[in-house]
Specification:
Chain A is mainly beta. Helix content of chain A is 0%, strand content 48%. The chains are: A mainly beta, B mainly beta.
């Protein structure tokens, strides 16, 4: 009964490189959320996806950031041309289909991105 | 604007002391309320939740929280903390049935043996 799986746990990139963060939701969950935790700050919502659809991306920076949740495979958060300010912990959460219970989000262990 | 406030950013207690962590939110409509805990090096775990019904909710590991609608508060309590409760605690709110969770800044709890 695996939980939300994120990989890699730690990712180091140089400025200008691309970062790809992966998230596999819990079995049976069709909703995925990405959050970012900057040092000394709480988690901030970035994007909410269902399979093949972006539902709410109001927390995503307008440039360089994108997310997808394809029909097959994990959800991907992609950061192009990383800058030092992108260094943070990125958490993924998943929840069951709406209407099949309370909307409880289960979190992965996070990916810690360090930009050199 | 909708927001979540946690009053204490860093709390230090001795074992067996009582704990109360404050959480307030700003929103006049329906809310779903949560407390999550993050132990060092681990992922966020759900401690307890409130959706409806009895405003006093009990969670895992002896934690409880009380929703006071008139005060827009959802404070976390534990009568007697243990060293193993050392962690960071996040209050979180879903506003108005939307899906995204808004988190407070977190409270780091350190329990001294």
């Amino acid at each position: 009964n695996a939980g939300v799986m994120q990989n890699p746990r730690h990712l180091v990139r140089r400025r200008g490189q691309e970062a790809r963060l992966r998230c596999s939701p819990m079995k049976g969950h069709s909703h995925v959320y990405w959050y970012r935790q900057l040092p000394e700050e709480g988690l901030k919502f970035m994007v909410y996806l269902q399979k093949e659809n972006i539902i709410d991306e109001s927390g995503m920076p307008k440039e360089r950031f994108s997310a997808e949740f394809p029909k097959e495979g994990p959800s991907i958060l992609r950061i192009q041309q990383v800058v030092r300010g992108d260094s943070a912990a990125y958490f993924c959460a998943s929840s069951p289909t709406i209407g099949q219970g309370e909307n409880i989000q289960y979190f992965g262990a996070g990916t810690r991105l360090s930009v050199l | 604007a909708q927001s979540v406030s946690q009053h204490n950013h860093h709390v230090i207690l001795s074992e067996a002391a009582s704990l109360e962590l404050g959480c307030n939110y700003s929103y006049g409509g329906t809310v779903n309320l949560f407390w999550y805990v993050q132990y060092p090096g681990q992922h966020l775990q759900l401690l307890l939740k409130y959706f409806s019904g009895d405003p006093l909710v009990k969670g895992i590991k002896g934690f409880e929280a009380e929703f006071i609608k008139s005060k827009f508060s959802f404070n976390l309590r534990k009568p007697s903390v243990q060293w193993s409760d050392t962690a960071e605690y996040f209050c979180a709110v879903i506003f108005g049935g939307y899906q995204k969770v808004t988190f407070g800044i977190g409270t780091k709890l350190q329990v001294i043996p």
